[in-house]
Amino acid sequence: MQAARAAVEEAQAARATAFGNLTALAGAAAPITSIPASLLDSTAPIFPGANPAASATTSYLAAQAEREAAARRLRVERRRAVPDVTVSIGVRRFEEDDASALVAGVSVPLPLFDQNRGNIAAARAEAAVAEARLNAARLEAEAAVRTSAARSAAAGSRLTAARQGESTAQEAYRLARIGYEAGRLPLSELVAARRALAEAREQTIAAAVERISAQAALARLSGVATPGEQ
User: Fold this and answer.
1) Buried b (16+ CB within 10 A) or exposed e, 188-222
2) Among 55, 91, 105, which residue's Cα sits nearest to residue 221?
């Protein structure tokens, strides 16, 4: 009995902590103390929009943006190595001849000693590093997608099996209760059947939690924030 009370108190503390974390993550003005529907009993996909592709994950998109920024910096540094041509046009007055002449000039700086090689080399190195990071992010994203999809499928299969086991345990308990009430079974058989049902329900809950966690991991990769969001 004491162990059961301790387990109940532990579950209540975990529940309060979970609601506190949910309140903080949601930025709610008032503490969240309940949810309208339990996700544990859901048979449909909790995050139906969670169908991630490696090229659409947050890590890959961030690495891609860094690669594009590095490529733009390299292009800018290469343009700076091209001399700026300055053209000037003016009118010159000759007082002696009482005449005017159109004067044009072209100025072209010659970068004989510095052609922005240092900045170009640095930008090229940054672009190469960004490209390597992008390739690494792609491989990591592909692995994460495969792992999360496999985990979600396994969790779904485990939950189906756990629910079937709970249904069998529920029926066994019902028959044991009928037999006990009819005087055909001892109390120990009824207690054993009830304990088996409790353990089966615990396994179902654990499998449902794992299924939610696996689907949430897929949702994070997909950028889906809310259950039921497409």
Assistant:
1) ebbeebeebbeebbebbeebbebbbebbbbbbbbb
2) 55
Measured distance CA(211)–CA(40) in Å, rounded:
9
pLDDT digits (tens, 9 = 90+) for 55-89: 777 788 888 999 999 989 888 888 776 666 666 67
Residue positions counted in the chain = 230
Question: What pLDDT, in 10s, does the model give residues 134-144?
Answer: 999 889 888 88
d(CA 161, CA 36): 26
Give the three-class secondary structure for 78. helix
**Residue 101: is it exposed, middle or buried by C-beta count within 10 angstroms (0-12/13-18/19+)?**
exposed
Long-range contacts of the stretch 65-69 (C-beta < 8 A, 24+): 66/130, 66/133, 66/134, 67/127, 67/130, 67/131, 67/133, 67/134, 69/130
CB 197 within 8 A of CB 170: yes
C-alpha 218/C-alpha 210 separation (Å) is 13
Question: Any idea which fold 54-222 has?
Answer: Outer membrane efflux proteins (OEP) (1.20.1600)
3-state DSSP call for residue 82? coil
Please tell me the pTM assigned to this model. Answer: 0.64
